[in-house]
Amino acid sequence: AQSVAQPEDQVNVAEGNPLTVKCTYSVSGNPYLFWYVQYPNRGLQFLLKYITGDNLVKGSYGFEAEFNKSQTSFHLKKPSALVSDSALYFCAVRKGGATNKLIFGTGTLLAVQP
Amino acid sequence: EAGVTQFPSHSVIEKGQTVTLRCDPISGHDNLYWYRRVMGKEIKFLLHFVKESKQDESGMPNNRFLAERTGGTYSTLKVQPAELEDSGVYFCASSPQTLGWGYTFGSGTRLTVV
């Protein structure tokens, strides 16, 4: 069965420091991987996706993610965190077939301290 | 282009009452999805419409939940009768027919059953 794991409930980082939010997945076949962010009182916003090609994917707001097939990971990264990056981050994998539904992780709360 | 609109944004109801959530997808998007996040857990798929037809309703928790999409436009999700464990945030998403991963999510409805 396809699944996504986000091992950290919360990640704390100081403003200006690099940040990493971890995600590992289990999927049969080639994975389609996504990161979404939810700011307070807002909907889920798309950050980036990996479908195929370069293992390093760049997305919105300066975020990037690295697809690592051998480690089945898709960690989200940013070189320099901003206080405004504080939000809830979800990793997801697309389940193939006719429905294209997403399988999400439990989410990681990112707290960036000034 | 207007986004995916959900209302109400919040709803507090008593156990045993009925609640109806509404989602207005982006105009022209054939695919409409409902997801739910129970506090602290992953976002889970509920069901998928293609136009007015239910493509996949494997995630619907039980027969207290009824989703409709009359005319292939907006969708409603009715919970009757509501139970305490139905509390959570209900997200709607839509995507065009030809872009299986181009989901746009709404801001969600926070349902609290007391």
What is this structure's SSE topology?
The complex is a heterodimer of chains A (114) and B (114).
Chain A: E1 3-5, E2 10-14, E3 19-21, E4 24-26, E5 33-38, E6 44-50, E7 56-58, E8 64-68, E9 73-78, E10 87-94, E11 102-104, E12 108-113
Parallel strand pairs in A: 2-12
Antiparallel strand pairs in A: 1-4, 3-9, 5-6, 5-10, 7-8, 8-9, 10-11, 10-12
Chain B: E1 5-7, E2 10-13, E3 19-24, E4 31-37, E5 43-50, E6 53-56, E7 65-68, E8 75-79, E9 88-95, E10 104-105, E11 109-113
Parallel strand pairs in B: 2-11
Antiparallel strand pairs in B: 1-3, 3-8, 4-5, 4-9, 5-6, 7-8, 9-10, 9-11
Textual characterization of the structure:
The complex is a heterodimer of chains A (114) and B (114). In chain A, strands 2, 5, 6, 10, 11 and 12 form a six-stranded mixed β-sheet that branches. A four-stranded antiparallel β-sheet of chain A has the order 3-9-8-7, with no helix packed on it. Chain A has one domain (3-113): Immunoglobulins (Immunoglobulin-like, Sandwich). The mean pLDDT of chain A is 92. Chain A has 114 residues and is mostly beta strands. Chain A is globular, with a radius of gyration of 14 Å. Chain A is built from no helices and twelve strands. In chain B, strand 5 (43-50) and strand 6 form a beta hairpin. Chain B has no helices and eleven strands. In chain B, the strands form two sheets. In chain B, strands 2, 4, 5, 6, 9, 10 and 11 form a seven-stranded mixed β-sheet that branches. Chain B has one domain: Immunoglobulin-like. By secondary structure, chain B is mainly β. The A-B interface holds A 4, 32, 34, 36, 41-46, 49, 51, 90, 92, 94, 98-107 and B 3-4, 6, 31, 33, 35, 37, 40-45, 48, 55-56, 59, 91, 93, 95, 100-101, 103-108.
